[in-house]
Amino acid sequence: MKPQRQLPLLFIFISFFITTTAAASIRNAAAAPPQQFREAPEFYNSAECPSIENTHELICSEETVHAAMTLDSAYIRGSMAAILSILQHSSCPQNIIFHFVASASADASHLRATILASFPYLKFEVYRFDDSSVSGLISTSIRSALDCPLNYARSYLANILPLCVRKVVYLDSDLVLVDDIAKLSATPLGENQILAAPEYCNANFTSYFTPTFWSNPSLSLTFADRKACYFNTGVMVIDLDRWRNGDYTRKIEEWMELQKRMRIYELGSLPPFLLVFAGDIAPVDHKWNQHGLGGDNFRGLCRDLHPGPVSLLHWSGKGKPWARLDANRPCPLDALWAPYDLLKLPFSFDS
C-alpha cells in the first residue's frame, strides 16, 4: 500500500514544479530585453551599375531591384539576416529598395528604427497591412504560424506598393541569398505570365487539397488544362502590372471564401496560389529556392540540400535556424545561416 500513498504526492510535486517553472518562464520572457542587432557594413555599387540620383527616383526607376518582405517582431532576426545576405551578394546594392509590409497592429516605428540601426544607409519603405482585410477569410491550418494574417500579405502587394512599382521579388524572412538578387529579378515572365518561381513537379500535388476538393468535378477540373506543379510562395518574382490588371487578389480571395465553406485544403496561404497560378508560371532554376531546410511541419527534422547549385537557402518548415542555434540543437545547414546573423550576444561589448 505504501506506493499507492506516495503516488499522489509525486503528482502534486510534479504539478507544482511545472506550474512554478512555467510562471518563472513567463516572468523571464516578459522581463527579457528586446533583441538588439549589430550595425552591418555598408555596401557600394560596382562601377558598371546605373546611377540613380535619389530615393524617389529609385522607387519608380526601371533600373531598380524591388524586394518585398513582411516584417514583424517574431521574425525580425531572420529578416535582418536576409537583408544582409541580399546586400552582400549584390553587384548594385545601392539600386535595391526594400518594401517591408508590417501588420497595422505592430509597432512600425520600432521596426523601422531596428532596421535603421543596423542598416542606416538602406533604402526602404514600411507599409501597414490591415489584418482585418484578410482575417475573416483565414481558415485554420495544420500549423498556427501559417494562420497569421501577415502571412497573407503577399497576396496584396499589388494594392500596397506604389503603382509605379511594376515588378517585385517577394522573399520570406527565413532565407538567405548567396547570389545576386538582380539575376532573380531579371527572370523573364513571358508575354502574359503573372509570376515566376521554381516548380517542383515531382511533389505529390494532390496532397495539397482535401478529398472534398478532388471528389467534386467542378473543383478538380480547375487543373484540367494545366500541368499543375507545386511551387513555394516564399520566393516569387511578380509582375504587379499584370496582377493589378487581372485582379488576382480577388481571385485568391474567392478561393479562400470557398475554403471557409467547404474545407478544400489544409496549408494556409499556399493552396490559393496553387489554385490560381499552378501550371501557368514562368520557370525559375531550382537553385533560387533550396527550400524545406526547416524540416517538415510536424517534427522539424533536419534536411539536406537538393542536388545542384545553390543561390538561395530557405528554412521553410517548422524549424528556424536562429531558434535551433539558440537551443544548441542546430541542424548542419544552420551553419550556413549563422554568418548573416546580426543579433548582439548578451553581455557583449561594442568596440
From TrEMBL:
Pfam families: Glyco_transf_8. It is a single-pass type II membrane protein. It is found in: Endomembrane system. Residues 1-23 form the signal peptide. One of its GO terms (biological process) is leaf development. GO terms for cellular component: endoplasmic reticulum; Golgi apparatus. Its main location: membrane. This is Hexosyltransferase. The gene is LOC102594984.
